[in-house]
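Incident review: delayed structure delivery

Summary: a single-chain prediction request sat in the queue longer than the usual turnaround. Root cause was a stuck worker, restarted by the on-call engineer. No data loss occurred. The affected request and its eventual output are reproduced below so the record is complete for anyone auditing the incident later.

Affected input:
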Amino acid sequence: MTTARLPLFPLNAVLFPGLVLPLNVYEERYRAMMRELLEIDEDEPRRFVVVAIRDGRETAPTATGMPDTVTAAPPAERAPADGFGPDPIQTFHRVGCVADAAKIRERADGSYEVLATGTTRVRLLSVDASGPFLTAEVEELSEDPGGAEGEGEAAPPDEAGALAEGVLRAFRSYQKRLAGASERSLTTGSDLPDDPSVVSYLVAAAAVLDVPSKQRLLQAPDTATRLREELALLRKETAVIRHLPSLPATDLTRAPTHPN
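Output delivered after worker restart:
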């Protein structure tokens, strides 16, 4: 496994490979992170790790995307681990995603507008709070397209492809129920990806699910397993929406908007 030490950005959201992440950065500890990333040559990747915070553990805001309100007064300066307990790694889910910051723009007030893209899944090995912001030692997690049918027995190579087709059909039905849209207003097959891993991440990000559910999909051991879990979730959610059509809308009004 490839290991690296990278800046750590905890969020109340899950980032998936291939998905875009807009951030509104105003806390000093994360401003310091962005200043350091800007010192990296533009031709090199400006990478940091996004990790989801376990439910009920965050006490310090991180200003994810919009429409968070930023007050005119400067925010109180926080230590790198403030709000994350005496042992921060226990506060975070252990599987996160590396983000590559394609755009980091400093505003007049010293805050930053950041646009990053998820690239690779990683597992947290340790968290260091000795610097101006959190850093983590991480190891890369490979993405095996197939799953295991049995003890030591590999799944057929075309299983992930067949599962991806089923997930896309289920997602169209789910999307139709969720939006109340007509069939022709939905995304057409030509607009959808062919790669099963890409499908698994796209659907995981687009589905209206809570953070623990999205986290389980992110850390699935392989693409086929993730697709099987998505198929079950989509069928369940579609059945719920059919009987309680207002449920997703009320869910969304109680929770902040997240970019993934």
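Verification: Helices lie at 28-38, 159-179, 196-206, 211-218, 223-243, 247-254.
Action items: add queue-age alerting; document worker restart procedure.
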